[in-house]
Specification:
By secondary structure, the chain is an all-alpha fold. Helices cover 70% and strands 0% of the residues.
């Protein structure tokens, strides 16, 4: 089997896997949620895109693959949006995101009829048709990049919300999705700059890109999309969203006087020292505010303004200090470092190691050896 044929087989396998995950997300009761429906549609659209690029492609009309792309990125955005905003019901406004894709269908039909172009070869024979099609393709690329940046921004806001409300976020963060979205943006940019986006006018000026590199691009793109689908299918945080009880993003924080903030900060410091609420591995902002006898908004303002930290960093610094105190205390020599971490409020080895190094600049083992 030669190289191009092997890639074709890979794309067909990717098509099959993407379709399978998409169907499972729709019919499985365990995975039933609005966000997973958008994920299923995202995978189904991409699977169809793979089919168009394979030898088994349906001849549905020149340029219609652009419609597929215009449906793909809004689906990913709506998946992330509904996932991070705990949306449970479909809203009519979501349909507006698919409007460019639906408008592109009649636009491409009129374009083909007006210039009499029905394939790539025809486009390169008519200069005006080539320029117009290149502009359409460029707008589609801009559309993709804008939506990917919106996805990244949404994930960043969600991460900030988690850090402001939870002391342990390892099991509910979406870092995997952020990394995959960045990878998708990088691959898309390479696709554009290298000419592999098949932007007609530039291809004519620069020459046809090498098919081998184009194949490699499709392998990377398909791998990223399948990883998004696989992680969305398997990660537990998908099902935790209804239980997070995050405050709405639209409600701004109130402004408090310096006197109020200072008073609460003193009470908070005393509470953390005397009662050590940070030993609770599932401690939340609302729980700490209730113990302190104040409201979450005021407590959050104190932590953000007076201590210049988010809630997650604030609590975990106390946990690290507790671990250090126990390392220095001979009474705890019978416990391992991980045992000390669990006794101090951490709930996983990876979060303990990363937080400890962030606070002290050393790994737990290196710190203990230094003592």
């Amino acid at each position: 089997m030669n190289y191009p044929n092997a890639i074709q087989v890979f794309l067909f396998i990717a098509f099959f896997i993407g379709s399978l995950i998409s169907i499972t997300l729709i019919i499985s009761k365990r995975h039933r949620s609005l966000s997973n429906y958008f994920l299923a549609f995202f995978l189904a659209v991409y699977a169809f895109k793979l089919l168009l690029n394979s030898e088994f492609a349906l001849r549905i009309g020149f340029g219609n693959y652009l419609v597929v792309i215009l449906l793909l990125t809004p689906s990913l955005y709506l998946y992330v949006y509904t996932l991070t905003n705990t949306c449970k019901t479909f809203k009519a406004v979501f349909l507006w995101h698919y409007l460019p894709g639906f408008l592109a269908m009649p636009l491409l039909f009129v374009y083909r009829k007006y210039w009499g172009v029905y394939n790539n070869t025809d486009v390169f024979m008519v200069e005006d048709a080539l320029i117009v099609f290149s502009i359409i393709q460029a707008l589609v690329v801009i559309h993709v990049i804008i939506y990917m940046l919106l996805v990244i921004r949404n994930l960043k806001e969600y991460k900030n919300q988690l850090e402001d409300n939870f002391s342990n976020i390892e099991n509910i963060n979406l870092r995997w999705l952020t990394i995959l979205c960045y990878a998708l943006i990088i691959v898309t940019l390479i696709w554009i700059i290298g000419g592999y986006g098949d932007i007609g006018y530039f291809v004519k000026k620069w020459g046809e890109p090498q098919i081998v590199v184009a194949y490699i691009f499709w392998v990377f793109m398909s791998s990223i999309v399948l990883l998004i689908g696989y992680n969305g299918f398997t990660k537990p945080e998908i099902f935790l969203n209804d239980k997070l009880d995050l405050p709405p993003k639209s409600i701004p924080k109130k402004k408090y006087s310096a006197k109020q903030l200072l008073k609460i900060s003193e009470q908070l410091t005393q509470l953390m020292h005397d009662e050590k609420p940070f030993l609770n591995p599932t401690l939340k902002l609302g729980q700490l505010a209730e113990i302190l006898g104040t409201n979450p908004s005021l407590l959050s303002s104190v932590i953000n303004t007076v201590f210049e930290k988010n809630f997650n960093d604030f609590v975990n610094e106390y946990r690290v200090k507790e671990v250090i105190n126990k390392i220095r205390n001979p009474e705890h020599n019978n416990l391992t470092l991980l045992g000390l971490a669990f006794d101090s409020g951490f709930n996983s080895k990876s979060s303990f190691n990363s937080v400890f190094k962030k606070v002290t600049g050393k790994t737990p083992n290196a710190f203990k050896r230094a003592l």
